[in-house]
Structures are given as C-alpha cells and as structure tokens.
Amino acid sequence: MRMKTFALWALLLASFSLWASPYNRNTAVPVQKVEYATVESVRQVHQQELVEDKNRGWKTFGGALAGGLIGNQFGDGSGRDVATVLGALLGAGMVQNRSPAYQVRELVLVELMVMTDAGERLMVLQDQDPRMHFNAGDEVRLVYLSEGSVRVDKAM
Fold first, then answer.
1. Count of alpha carbons within 13 Å of 61, Cβ hemisphere only?
2. What was the pLDDT predicted at 12?
3. How many domains does the chain have?
4. Angle between helices 56-71 and 78-98 (to 10 degrees)
C-alpha cells in the first residue's frame, strides 16, 4: 500500500512538472539541436481559446454575502431570518447569472513553412512575437528544445 502511494505521488509530481514548464522568453531551457533554414511562406493564424473563470465560486460567495447583509436589514425575528436567506439567494443568483463561466481569449499565431539546409520541409506553428516579423526568404534557425517543442528565431 505504501509503495503504491509513493508511486502515485511520484507520477503526479512528474506529470505536474511537465505540465507546469511552458517555454517562456526569459527562462533557460535545454536545447537538443539547432538547424538553419529558409522561410518559404508565412501566415498569421487567429485562434480563440475558452478559459474557465477560476474565481466564479468566490464571486458567487461574495454575492450571497452581500445579499445576506442587505436582507438582514429588513424585518424582525424570523422575518429577518427569511429576508437574510432570500437576500443571500438573490445575491448569489444575480452574480451567477451575470458572470460568464468561460472567457474567450484571442491567440495570434504565426505559421512558418521552412526548408532546412538539409533539404527537409517543415511547418512550425508558434506564438507571434510582435518584435520578430518573418518574411519569405528570411534565414532562420530552428531550435529544438528538450521537451519536444521547436522555436523558430531569426538567424544572426
């Protein structure tokens, strides 16, 4: 039993470390290899992504709290208790209906078709960097990172 628990924790930790390590511009990432290529075509791709609102429960709780506080101002005795409960329910319901469960995030990507110096044609889809514009005929380098992803940068 103890060995199974340890194995489960090790698996969860390993999967979390893989999930939580995206490529960012200001981090050091091990490089597997670098190849040089020429850009054949460039295309901008717009993609929408649904992002779940992680604070929705807290917003509902805040609405219920505010509604309960307002409802508590009315009535006496058991009437006050009923007004407090109704105010909490109405406040939670109003917030739940007004705040969307998901938000849409617009991603701007760039699709690059490149021909490597070895004669291999590759297509790379990556986030668009507003400071790095690619055109057909540009000399670029393909940076293969350790987690299996590829980045295209201008060759220096």
1. 4
2. 40
3. 2
4. 150
- Tell me the DSSP string of 98-125: HS-SEEEEEEEEEEEEEEETTS-EEEEE
- Prediction pTM value: 0.51
- Could you tell me if 150 and 127 are in contact, meaning their C-beta atoms sit under 8 angstroms apart? no
Q: Does residue 9 belong to any structural domain of this protein?
A: no
Provide the pLDDT for residue 23.
53
Q: In this structure, what token pair is assigned to residue 140?
A: 């670029």
Which residues are registered as beta bridge partners of 40? Answer: none
Q: Are residues 123 and 92 in the same domain?
A: no
The residues with which 144 forms a beta bridge, in sequence order, are 33, 150
Give the range of the structural domain holding residue 69, as residue numbers without chain letter. 54-99
Question: 7-41 as b/e, with b when 16 or more CB fall inside 10 Å?
Answer: eeeeeeeeeeeeeeeeeeeeeeeeeeeebebebee
Contact 126, 149 (CB under 8 A): no
In this predicted structure, what is the pLDDT of residue 40?
A: 93
* Block mean pLDDT (10 aa), the chain, length 156: 44 40 64 90 84 73 80 81 81 75 80 91 87 90 85 84
